[in-house]
Each structure stands twice: as C-alpha cells, then as structure tokens.
C-alpha cells in the first residue's frame, strides 16, 4: 500500500491565500522527503475553510522543489471550466511535470461554488462532467474535430482550417512517455461516479464512509470495469482518511484533538457529516449505540480517525483490510497546522516510515 496526502486543504478561515500557498509548498516538501507517493490538491472557490481555487498553481510550484512526489488536482471540477481550455492546460502541465502529474476529476461538491458559476443545484453538474471529459479526451488526440454537445462546443484545428497560410499547432497533448492516469472522486454509498469511472477505465478515489461504502465502491467500480472489458485492479483504489500517529495512543489522541484535525472536525466537518448523514456507516461499524448528534471528538478519535501509536494505526488498517479487501493508496486528509507544524509533520513522517512499510508487508497487493 502506498501513501498520499489529500490537501483539500482544511485550513482555518482567517488564513490568507499567501499563508495557505506557503504552507502547501512546505507540506509537499515534507511529504516528498518522508516518502509519500502522491500529493493531491483540492479545488474550491467559495469555501473559507478549503481555500485553494487554483490547484495547478500549487502543483507547479511544489513540483519544482520536490523530487519524487506525483501531483494531481483532486479534483478539477469540470463543470466550472471550459473543457478545451482545461484540456490544453492539463496537457501542457503534464509535459512540464514529465510523468509526475495525473488528473483527478469531480463534478463539484458544494452548492456555494455551484451558485458562483451560475448553477442552482448540484444535480446539474454530473452530466456536464461527462460531456466535458468526452471533449477533453478528443482534444488530447490532437486530431481535427468539431463538437457541439448539450453543454459545450469545442474543436481541434487541422490543415483544412488553414487555407492559404500555415499555423504550426502546439503539441500540448498529454505527456506520452508513461500512461496517463485519470481518477474520479466518489462519495455516495451508491455512487454513480464509481460506475462512470469503471465504464471508462478511470481510477477510483473515495472519501471513507465505513465498511459497507468501501465495499460498495469497489463492487460498483470493478463490475463496471469488467462489463466494459477492462481488468479492475485493487492497487488502483485510493481512499482518503484522517490519520494521526504519535509515540503512544494517548498522546496521538491529545495531539489530534488539540491540533488542526480537531479544529476542522469541531468547526467544519462534524456539522457537514451530520447534515449529509455521512456518519451513519461509521457509527454502524463502531458497534457503539450512539446517534450522529452524540458524536464527539472522543468518538471520532477512537472510531473515525486512524489515531494512535504506529502499531495501533497499523492494526486499525489491517483490521479494515480484513473486512473490505486490500486497496492501493491511503491518502491522509491534511488539516491546518500552520501555527505549530511539528506534531502533524512528525505524524506524517511516522505514517510513511513506520506504518506503511508494515501494512505493505502484511497486505497482499
Ligand atoms: C477524494 C475526493 C476529492 C474531492 N475533491 C473535491 C474538490 O476539490 N472540490 C469539490 O467541490 N468537490 C470535491 N469532491 C466531491 C466531488 O466533487 C463530488 O461531490 C463527489 O465525488 C460525488 O461523488 P458521488 O457521485 O459518489 O456522490 C471530492 C471528493 C472526493 C472523494
């Protein structure tokens, strides 16, 4: 199993864009040195507690000061972009990063961003995501076409478009030296995104919502893959989790609750998880007789976050693998540790260097 960082990020609302940018670059360097394989950057436009509207700016800057880390926007929200423009920018950046870049796509998960872009609700977005990706795939072929769809128009120029003069067309297609990966984000228990990902041989990446949800994501994706004639491989599954590692369980819990992880859950994530009923599966797994309204930091540290010594965190992952089967990458959600980076950075390092090798050794690929 490999490890990645999912840097949406969960920042505190008073942070300036410059603070978030500088923190992101420093964090990428820490992850690179610690042995993380992927660094994934979210895209949001109106959320004070997840404030990166331009993941590619972070990605390009961080790539220049790191060596091995692979980067992806996770996710470019396709309905909010012009697909042809985005396809060219992605192709260009994939060549700049020479194989250290792949693409995450999502329809957009927040209605405030949807309103900013002229939509009234999120249900208008998934169909646009699919059409946008169809256009982007065509642009990356770098062959002449014209396309007029339900939502977008696009094309690619060829010799017939240049009567009487010649324009040399820039080679801004995808980096071709290695296969280009596209990952689709998924959240719901019965996820249409997982089906769509499988139908097109795109990789799946999930937020964790409990054992049943993880099994359902694998089943939906792998069935769609097989039906479309592709081979589903468990290494392609990525799952995002909260993680905090320290010397011992009590210290990990104390640091997690008093640091950025505790702040985000108390002020931001817990209300969202309650509102959208995302805790149901996790409460069921815990076996604790508790309602979503009664969930507190203590419950989260025990049952939701992978929190503890490296031995405890390893055991928690192995116990989950026993129930859902192996998967390829565990992505740690990043939380604001700008005021005191040392404990969270130590946790990242211990996770990559103490937990991952043990999990990798005991879990079949
Ligand atoms: C790993 C991951 C990353 C995501 N990143 C973003 C993001 O950066 N911006 C955003 O608005 N939504 C993001 N989402 C949410 C998606 O836009 C979308 O709501 C979700 O994938 C829908 O999944 P479903 O079809 O299973 O319900 C992310 C979801 C996941 C699982």
TrEMBL record:
Any GO MF annotation of the entry: oxidoreductase activity, acting on paired donors, with incorporation or reduction of molecular oxygen
Recorded GO cellular component terms are: cytosol
Q: What UniProt keywords apply to this chain's record, in alphabetical order?
A: Flavoprotein, Monooxygenase, Oxidoreductase
What the entry lists under Pfam families is as follows: Bac_luciferase (PF00296)
Q: Where is the Luciferase-like domain?
A: 1-322
Q: Keyword Flavoprotein, does the record have it? A: yes
Q: Which InterPro entries match?
A: Bact_Lucif_Oxidored, Luciferase-like_dom, Luciferase-like_sf
Say which family it is in: Belongs to the bacterial luciferase oxidoreductase family.
Q: What is this protein called?
A: Luciferase
């Amino acid at each position: 199993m490999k490890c990645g960082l999912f840097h949406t990020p969960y920042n505190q609302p008073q942070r300036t864009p410059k603070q978030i940018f500088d923190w992101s670059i420093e964090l990428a360097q820490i992850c690179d040195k610690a042995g993380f394989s992927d660094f994934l950057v979210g895209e949001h436009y109106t959320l004070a507690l997840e404030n990166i509207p331009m993941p590619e700016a972070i990605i390009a800057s961080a790539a220049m000061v790191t060596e091995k880390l692979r980067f992806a926007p996770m996710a470019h929200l396709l309905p909010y972009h012009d697909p042809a423009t985005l396809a060219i920018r992605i192709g260009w950046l994939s060549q700049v990063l020479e194989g250290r870049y792949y693409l995450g796509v999502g329809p957009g998960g927040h209605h405030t961003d949807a309103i900013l872009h002229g939509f009234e609700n999120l249900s208008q977005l998934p169909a646009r995501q699919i059409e946008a990706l169809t256009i982007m795939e065509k642009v990356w072929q770098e062959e002449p076409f014209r396309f007029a769809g339900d939502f977008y128009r696009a094309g690619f120029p060829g010799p017939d478009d240049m009567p009487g003069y010649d324009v040399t067309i820039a080679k801004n297609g995808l980096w071709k030296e290695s296969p280009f990966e596209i990952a689709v984000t998924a959240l719901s228990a019965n996820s249409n995104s997982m089906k769509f990902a499988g139908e097109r041989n795109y990789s799946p990446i999930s937020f964790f919502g409990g054992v049943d949800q993880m099994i359902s994501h694998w089943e939906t994706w792998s069935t769609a893959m097989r039906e479309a004639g592709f081979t589903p491989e468990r290494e392609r599954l990525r799952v995002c989790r909260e993680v905090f590692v320290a010397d011992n369980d009590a210290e990990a819990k104390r640091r997690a609750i008093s640091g950025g992880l505790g702040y985000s859950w108390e002020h931001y994530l817990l209300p969202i998880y309650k509102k959208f009923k995302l805790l149901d599966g996790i409460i069921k797994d815990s076996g604790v007789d508790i309602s979503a309204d009664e969930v507190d930091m203590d419950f989260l540290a025990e049952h939701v976050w992978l929190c503890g010594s490296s031995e405890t965190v390893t055991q928690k992952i192995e116990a989950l693998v026993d129930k859902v089967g192996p998967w390829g990458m565990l992505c740690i959600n990043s939380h604001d540790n700008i005021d005191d980076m040392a404990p969270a950075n130590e946790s990242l390092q211990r996770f990559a260097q103490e937990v991952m090798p043990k999990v990798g050794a005991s879990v079949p690929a």
